[in-house]
């Protein structure tokens, strides 16, 4: 017989939220990897100076952001704080891309991605604070 925690238990709902934010972000990143944008902006990324977003088109900034987010997703389950750093770097590129993007579906997708990344960072930070609070008791 399979044992489950009661639906109202705090650890159950916290874990559900953690899994949902990770799942949503991973799904979005997977869609991006398979899109035409991912393949079409590689040359634009190579044209910019390393670490610089100056002069890059919004699509290239978005690609760079998604690369960082994907790297974070690979680390998320075993090293969430390091993943959070990559997510934050990716969100900076996303914000720059949004500032330069033309209004439309691409900018809406960028905004949705930025919202998901920010939610994931908040969740990881909340968990880290909760852990450090329980460690000190």
What does it look like?
This protein has 137 residues and is mainly alpha-helical. 77% of the residues lie in helices and 0% in strands. The protein contains 6 helices and no strands. It has helices spanning 10-33, 36-40, 42-47, 58-76, 80-100, 105-135. α1 crosses α4 (58-76) and α5 packs antiparallel against α6 (105-135). The longest helix has 31 residues, at 105-135. It is elongated, with a radius of gyration of 17 Å. The N and C termini lie far apart (35 Å).
Keywords:
disordered N terminus, 137 residues, mainly alpha, single chain
Q: So how many helices?
A: 6
Percent strand: under 5%
Residues in helix, %: over 70%
pLDDT averaged residue by residue = 76
Q: Please give the radius of gyration in angstroms.
A: 17 Å
The unreliable regions are 1-11, 36-50
How would the global form be characterised?
Answer: elongated
Q: Which structural class do you get from the secondary structure elements?
A: mainly alpha
Biggest beta sheet attributes? none
Q: What string, H for helix and E for strand, traces the elements in order?
A: HHHHHH
**Ends apart, CA distance between termini:** 35 Å
The counted number of beta strands is: 0
Q: What would a concise description of this structure say?
A:
With 137 residues, the chain is an all-alpha fold.
């Amino acid at each position: 017989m399979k044992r489950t925690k009661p639906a109202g238990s705090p650890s159950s709902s916290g874990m559900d939220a953690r899994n949902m934010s990770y799942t949503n972000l991973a799904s979005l990143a997977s869609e991006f990897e398979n899109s035409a944008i991912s393949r079409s902006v590689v040359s634009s990324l190579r044209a910019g100076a390393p670490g610089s977003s100056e002069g890059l088109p919004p699509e290239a900034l978005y690609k760079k952001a998604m690369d960082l987010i994907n790297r974070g997703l690979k680390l998320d389950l075993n090293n969430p704080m390091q993943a959070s750093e990559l997510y934050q770097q990716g969100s900076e590129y996303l914000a720059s891309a949004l500032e330069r993007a033309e209004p439309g579906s691409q900018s809406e997708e960028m905004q949705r991605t930025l919202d998901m990344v920010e939610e994931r960072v908040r969740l990881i930070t909340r968990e880290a604070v909760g852990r450090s609070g329980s460690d000190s008791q």
